[in-house]
Amino acid sequence: MKHSKIALVVSTALLASSSVYAADAVNNDNYADAVQNGNKNTAVIQQNVNSHDNSSKIRQTSQDPAFKVRNTATSIQDNTDGATSNILQNGNGNTAAVTQKNSTNMAEVDVDSVGNKNEAYVTQQNYTRKGAFAQVQQHGNSNLATITQRDADSSTSIVDQNGSGDTATIENIWSDSAYAKIIQNTGDKNNAYIKQDDSDGAIANLTQTGANNDGDITQRTNLKSINTTESKLVQNGNDNVGVINQFASSSYAKVEQYSQNDKTTVNQEGFNQRAIVKQTSDLGGRNEVSLTQIGNDNYAGVRTLEGVGSTVTINQDSSGNQIANRVNGEGFGATTRGSHTTLDITQTGGDNNFARVDIAASNSDVDLMQTGSNHYATISGQAGDRDDIDLVQSGDNHFATVSVDAGSVHNIQVTQNQSNNYATVVSNGSNNSVTIMQGSAL
């Protein structure tokens, strides 16, 4: 026999059934609890209009005699203070939607979907201030989770997905000091996206372990803010991709990718940026890094290990630059360990420059260009054969060192024009070629 249950609770009207408990007939300290065991269930709880300290709880468990969808739960809390919403769905059709909006101070949402077709949407918006909290846990199968917090300062958003179809989206807009975290592990199709827009001091963490991966973090903050915006993206295994975009503020970005196809894009614009990228491809995959920093203090450290045919592209346009290690001693510079690697590093538009490049394999192709201001570059090759190194410095103070410790058939060219020059090239091994050109206009 098929069963269907629908439970509706409105805290101001108080409708109840055997599967629903609602307490307190006034607009304060409302509590609603819906429990549904069986198949094709639906539950709706609504608490709204100038009520306080509301609590909503829905628990659905399906026993699956060849389920044909359903399990649906909706909790709406509108214009309330201290709202708490909890939804637990144990299996089969699933779907959960929670909406908390309009002055829901200290709003809190927890959705837990254990298995099957999942889906969960959480919306907290419009003056959900003072630490709004939203968490979605999905343990397996088709998954999808969307959390939106708008105008919710110090809000926390967490999505934890443990395999199957995956996909997770978190958006925090006009939410200063917002914290967003997505965890996708134990494989399957992954995806994920975190966007925190006009959210000063925002922090985003995204971790993907195994399967098709993707990533994506975008944080566009108030241009007048001095608060630090931080992003960290970790991808461990399988197809990977990455991508972090941060615009202005004191931004910090870190990407770690371990094994397989890798690929990273980091864009940072303005103010006191820092970016660190680590890639390890122990299965002989092809690393690929693209990193751009425009204006202000800059710094970029990129390290790719064990890949074949890796590509590293770094562009820094004016201000403090670097790509360390040393001078100010930040992390590492552009470091590669793998054959047939291409490094293309450009520092343009003037200002303080400095770069460091370390290679340790055969058939590396290094192009380093510094245009305007104080310069200083060092390139070091520690092993391998047939490396092609081209260093160009133009305008202002220059100074360059290139050192290749071993190997053969290396081709090294250093060009310095207009301003103070000075270059040192050391090439050990056989059949190497060194060219140094210095002048006022080459």
3D architecture notes:
With 442 residues, the chain is an all-beta fold. It has two domains: 1-152, no CATH class; 266-442. Helices cover 0% and strands 51% of the residues. It contains no helices and 36 strands. It has strands spanning 6-10, 20-23, 31-37, 42-52, 55-61, 72-81, 84-89, 96-101, 108-113, 121-125, 133-138, 145-150, 156-161, 168-173, 179-184, 193-197, 203-209, 217-220, 228-236, 244-247, 250-258, 264-269, 274-280, 288-294, 300-305, 311-317, 334-337, 342-348, 355-359, 365-371, 377-381, 388-394, 400-404, 411-417, 423-427, 433-439. The strands form two sheets. It has an 18-stranded parallel β-sheet, with no helix packed on it. Residues 1-26 have low confidence and may be disordered.
Summarize the structure.
The protein is mainly beta and 442 residues long.
Largest sheet: 18 strands, parallel
Strand content is over 45%
What does the average pLDDT come to?
79
Helix content: under 10%
Instruction: Kindly name the structural category.
Output: mainly beta
What is the rounded distance between the termini? 88 Å
Overall body shape: elongated
Radius of gyration: 28 Å
